Amino acid sequence: MKGTASSVASAEDTELVKSLRAGDPKAFSTLVDRHHGTFVRVAMAFVGDRSAAEEVAQDTWMAVLTGLGGFEGRSSLKTWMFRILTNRAKTRGVRDARSSPSALDEERDEGLPPADRFNERGMWASPPRPFGEDTPEKLVLRHESLSCIEAELARLPAVQRAVLTLRDIEGLDAAEVCNILEIGETNQRVLLHRARSKVRRALEEELGTD
Prior knowledge:
mainly alpha, Arc Repressor Mutant, subunit A, 2 domains, globular
Protein backbone atom coordinates (compact mmCIF):
# COMPACT_ATOMS: atom_id res chain seq x y z
CA MET A 1 0.00 0.00 0.00
CA LYS A 2 1.36 3.38 -0.93
CA GLY A 3 2.09 5.79 1.89
CA THR A 4 -0.15 8.80 2.44
CA ALA A 5 0.26 11.89 4.56
CA SER A 6 -1.40 10.00 7.44
CA SER A 7 0.42 6.68 6.94
CA VAL A 8 4.05 7.84 6.96
CA ALA A 9 6.02 9.26 9.85
CA SER A 10 5.47 12.98 10.41
CA ALA A 11 7.99 15.51 11.69
CA GLU A 12 6.28 15.23 15.08
CA ASP A 13 6.74 11.45 14.99
CA THR A 14 10.43 11.87 14.20
CA GLU A 15 10.96 14.22 17.13
CA LEU A 16 8.97 12.01 19.47
CA VAL A 17 10.92 8.91 18.49
CA LYS A 18 14.15 10.82 19.01
CA SER A 19 13.05 11.76 22.55
CA LEU A 20 11.93 8.21 23.30
CA ARG A 21 15.24 6.77 22.11
CA ALA A 22 17.00 9.25 24.38
CA GLY A 23 15.05 7.84 27.33
CA ASP A 24 12.86 10.89 27.92
CA PRO A 25 10.24 9.71 30.48
CA LYS A 26 7.96 12.67 29.73
CA ALA A 27 7.75 11.68 26.06
CA PHE A 28 6.81 8.12 26.98
CA SER A 29 4.25 9.31 29.54
CA THR A 30 2.66 11.53 26.91
CA LEU A 31 2.45 8.63 24.49
CA VAL A 32 0.85 6.34 27.09
CA ASP A 33 -1.68 8.98 28.14
CA ARG A 34 -2.61 9.51 24.50
CA HIS A 35 -2.99 5.90 23.40
CA HIS A 36 -3.33 3.46 26.30
CA GLY A 37 -7.12 3.62 26.44
CA THR A 38 -7.31 2.96 22.72
CA PHE A 39 -4.88 0.06 23.03
CA VAL A 40 -7.17 -1.60 25.56
CA ARG A 41 -10.32 -0.99 23.50
CA VAL A 42 -8.78 -2.44 20.35
CA ALA A 43 -7.26 -5.40 22.20
CA MET A 44 -10.70 -6.16 23.66
CA ALA A 45 -11.92 -6.89 20.15
CA PHE A 46 -9.64 -9.92 20.01
CA VAL A 47 -9.34 -11.14 23.60
CA GLY A 48 -12.76 -10.23 25.00
CA ASP A 49 -11.60 -10.02 28.62
CA ARG A 50 -10.53 -6.62 29.95
CA SER A 51 -7.76 -7.97 32.17
CA ALA A 52 -6.27 -9.80 29.18
CA ALA A 53 -6.62 -6.63 27.09
CA GLU A 54 -4.75 -4.66 29.75
CA GLU A 55 -1.97 -7.25 29.69
CA VAL A 56 -1.78 -7.03 25.90
CA ALA A 57 -1.57 -3.24 26.14
CA GLN A 58 1.23 -3.42 28.73
CA ASP A 59 3.12 -5.96 26.62
CA THR A 60 2.72 -3.68 23.62
CA TRP A 61 4.24 -0.72 25.46
CA MET A 62 7.24 -2.84 26.36
CA ALA A 63 7.55 -3.95 22.72
CA VAL A 64 7.30 -0.33 21.57
CA LEU A 65 10.15 0.71 23.85
CA THR A 66 12.38 -2.21 22.93
CA GLY A 67 11.56 -1.96 19.22
CA LEU A 68 12.12 1.77 18.69
CA GLY A 69 15.48 1.07 17.15
CA GLY A 70 13.73 -0.71 14.32
CA PHE A 71 11.22 2.06 13.59
CA GLU A 72 12.15 3.41 10.16
CA GLY A 73 9.34 5.90 9.61
CA ARG A 74 7.77 4.10 6.65
CA SER A 75 4.45 4.34 8.49
CA SER A 76 3.22 6.75 11.13
CA LEU A 77 4.27 6.01 14.70
CA LYS A 78 0.63 5.38 15.58
CA THR A 79 0.21 2.85 12.78
CA TRP A 80 3.43 1.10 13.76
CA MET A 81 2.33 0.84 17.40
CA PHE A 82 -1.14 -0.41 16.57
CA ARG A 83 0.32 -3.06 14.25
CA ILE A 84 2.30 -4.34 17.24
CA LEU A 85 -0.82 -4.21 19.42
CA THR A 86 -3.13 -6.06 17.03
CA ASN A 87 -0.56 -8.77 16.33
CA ARG A 88 -0.13 -9.37 20.05
CA ALA A 89 -3.88 -9.25 20.67
CA LYS A 90 -4.54 -11.81 17.92
CA THR A 91 -1.84 -14.10 19.32
CA ARG A 92 -3.29 -13.79 22.82
CA GLY A 93 -6.79 -14.47 21.51
CA VAL A 94 -5.66 -17.67 19.83
CA ARG A 95 -3.73 -18.69 22.93
CA ASP A 96 -6.84 -18.18 25.03
CA ALA A 97 -8.70 -20.48 22.61
CA ARG A 98 -10.93 -17.76 21.28
CA SER A 99 -12.09 -18.03 17.68
CA SER A 100 -9.99 -16.09 15.20
CA PRO A 101 -12.27 -14.86 12.38
CA SER A 102 -10.96 -14.03 8.97
CA ALA A 103 -10.60 -10.45 7.84
CA LEU A 104 -13.74 -10.89 5.73
CA ASP A 105 -15.81 -11.88 8.78
CA GLU A 106 -17.98 -14.14 6.63
CA GLU A 107 -21.54 -14.12 7.94
CA ARG A 108 -25.12 -13.54 6.91
CA ASP A 109 -26.13 -9.89 6.89
CA GLU A 110 -29.87 -10.26 6.47
CA GLY A 111 -31.80 -7.26 7.71
CA LEU A 112 -28.88 -4.84 7.94
CA PRO A 113 -29.63 -1.21 7.04
CA PRO A 114 -28.58 -0.22 3.49
CA ALA A 115 -25.42 1.77 2.87
CA ASP A 116 -27.33 5.01 2.25
CA ARG A 117 -28.19 5.12 5.96
CA PHE A 118 -24.72 6.71 6.32
CA ASN A 119 -23.26 9.74 4.55
CA GLU A 120 -19.83 9.99 2.95
CA ARG A 121 -18.26 10.82 6.34
CA GLY A 122 -19.77 7.76 8.00
CA MET A 123 -22.34 9.79 9.95
CA TRP A 124 -25.98 8.74 10.11
CA ALA A 125 -28.08 10.39 7.42
CA SER A 126 -30.97 10.28 9.91
CA PRO A 127 -30.33 9.51 13.62
CA PRO A 128 -32.59 6.95 15.32
CA ARG A 129 -34.05 9.69 17.49
CA PRO A 130 -33.19 13.40 17.81
CA PHE A 131 -31.18 14.47 20.83
CA GLY A 132 -32.06 17.95 22.08
CA GLU A 133 -31.38 19.87 25.24
CA ASP A 134 -29.85 18.22 28.28
CA THR A 135 -33.13 17.63 30.10
CA PRO A 136 -33.14 14.78 32.65
CA GLU A 137 -35.10 12.68 30.17
CA LYS A 138 -32.59 13.33 27.40
CA LEU A 139 -29.67 12.56 29.72
CA VAL A 140 -31.23 9.22 30.61
CA LEU A 141 -31.76 8.54 26.92
CA ARG A 142 -28.11 9.36 26.21
CA HIS A 143 -26.99 6.97 28.95
CA GLU A 144 -29.22 4.23 27.52
CA SER A 145 -27.74 4.87 24.08
CA LEU A 146 -24.16 4.55 25.32
CA SER A 147 -24.98 1.33 27.17
CA CYS A 148 -26.64 -0.06 24.05
CA ILE A 149 -23.64 0.86 21.88
CA GLU A 150 -21.18 -0.73 24.32
CA ALA A 151 -23.23 -3.93 24.47
CA GLU A 152 -23.49 -4.15 20.68
CA LEU A 153 -19.76 -3.48 20.26
CA ALA A 154 -19.06 -6.43 22.54
CA ARG A 155 -21.14 -8.68 20.27
CA LEU A 156 -19.43 -7.70 17.02
CA PRO A 157 -16.98 -10.12 15.36
CA ALA A 158 -13.40 -9.22 16.25
CA VAL A 159 -12.28 -7.52 13.04
CA GLN A 160 -15.55 -5.60 12.66
CA ARG A 161 -15.19 -4.30 16.20
CA ALA A 162 -11.57 -3.36 15.63
CA VAL A 163 -12.38 -1.49 12.41
CA LEU A 164 -15.28 0.40 14.01
CA THR A 165 -13.20 1.28 17.07
CA LEU A 166 -10.28 2.57 15.03
CA ARG A 167 -12.38 4.46 12.46
CA ASP A 168 -15.34 5.88 14.36
CA ILE A 169 -14.14 6.04 17.96
CA GLU A 170 -10.46 6.82 17.48
CA GLY A 171 -10.76 8.73 14.21
CA LEU A 172 -8.10 6.92 12.17
CA ASP A 173 -8.43 7.10 8.40
CA ALA A 174 -9.09 4.13 6.13
CA ALA A 175 -5.48 3.78 4.99
CA GLU A 176 -4.20 3.59 8.57
CA VAL A 177 -6.79 0.99 9.53
CA CYS A 178 -5.99 -1.14 6.48
CA ASN A 179 -2.31 -0.97 7.38
CA ILE A 180 -2.84 -1.79 11.05
CA LEU A 181 -5.21 -4.72 10.49
CA GLU A 182 -3.54 -5.86 7.25
CA ILE A 183 -6.76 -5.87 5.27
CA GLY A 184 -7.66 -4.48 1.85
CA GLU A 185 -9.54 -1.25 1.26
CA THR A 186 -12.66 -3.05 0.02
CA ASN A 187 -12.71 -5.37 3.04
CA GLN A 188 -12.31 -2.39 5.34
CA ARG A 189 -15.33 -0.68 3.81
CA VAL A 190 -17.45 -3.83 4.05
CA LEU A 191 -16.45 -4.49 7.66
CA LEU A 192 -17.09 -0.88 8.67
CA HIS A 193 -20.53 -0.84 7.05
CA ARG A 194 -21.51 -4.11 8.69
CA ALA A 195 -20.38 -2.89 12.11
CA ARG A 196 -22.07 0.50 11.77
CA SER A 197 -25.26 -1.14 10.54
CA LYS A 198 -25.44 -3.53 13.49
CA VAL A 199 -24.92 -0.73 15.99
CA ARG A 200 -27.53 1.37 14.19
CA ARG A 201 -30.04 -1.50 14.23
CA ALA A 202 -29.42 -2.12 17.94
CA LEU A 203 -30.05 1.55 18.73
CA GLU A 204 -33.23 1.55 16.67
CA GLU A 205 -34.51 -1.50 18.51
CA GLU A 206 -33.55 -0.06 21.91
CA LEU A 207 -34.73 3.52 21.42
CA GLY A 208 -37.15 3.39 18.53
CA THR A 209 -37.24 5.60 15.45
CA ASP A 210 -39.07 8.80 14.57
